[in-house]
Write a structure and sequence with these properties.
Length: 118
Amino acid sequence: MEGIEEATTALLEFLAFSIELIAGAILVFGAARFLFTVAVQSLSGSRGMSEALADARVHLGAYILAGLEFLIVADILFTIVNRSLEDVIVLAIIASVRTLISVFLNRELKELRQQGVS
């Protein structure tokens, strides 16, 4: 039975770490796309800098939201492995902060989309 618990713990830790890497990749890709979009749109002269930034912000916000969701999943998996009260409290704080960020970012993205920013 102890071998199964160790294997399960190792698997969950590996999955949590892998999901954190995926979240990091999503965030880095989103940031790179943001910079690329702003550079291409502002240098091509098809849009002004403020329009290019607004358009790129919508896309970056979507990547940030996706990255935050993956990070919350990784935190939950990590807490399954480490069930101390301290870890659960830290998870609750982190998940609350990330959820608040997601709510406000989602609201801002909706407002930008309603203003006609793609």
